[in-house]
């Protein structure tokens, strides 16, 4: 513990020196390390079972207090989350929510590899989507016959976009195919 106290004091002095030099030497790392040492020292002195837990809090608090900005403290916590996320992906495990979706066999978007994502990043939206003129849609002014024909042509669609015909092509909602079929049977 004496060694940790000595380290924390030396880091405080080196942080003070680097902050007051006339040349730009950096503010973040010296205050970050000094705060981490002070946090660990506090964890040891408080007699906590896990004094390591105070390291990150001390680093964030001290660097935030030294620079006077909230963003420095946020960067510390974001950095730890990013490192944990990277470690999880490096181990090849699924995130918690994705795992739940897979176990329950719910419909979901496919989880893609970084290699596939790199290939897909070169694809333009126009290569995947249809232009509005060719898109399957029903309009507010369409007749019952047009709706019947559309449902027969596309029996596997679960819903159809309901498009208001104007110059903006606004899409106020969608119509469920079962509801459309039930309404047509009533007419």
TrEMBL record:
Location relative to the cell: Membrane
Membrane-spanning intervals of the chain: 50-68
Topological category with respect to the lipid bilayer: Multi-pass membrane protein
This protein's UniProt keywords: Membrane, Repeat, Signal, Transmembrane, Transmembrane helix
SUPFAM superfamilies in the cross-refs: Clc chloride channel (SSF81340)
Gene Ontology terms: cellular component: membrane
Gene3D superfamilies xref list: Clc chloride channel
Gene Ontology molecular functions: voltage-gated chloride channel activity
Leader sequence segment: 1-15
Chief site of localization: membrane
InterPro entries, sorted: Cl-channel_core, Cl_channel_volt-gated, ClC
Name of this chain's protein: Chloride channel protein
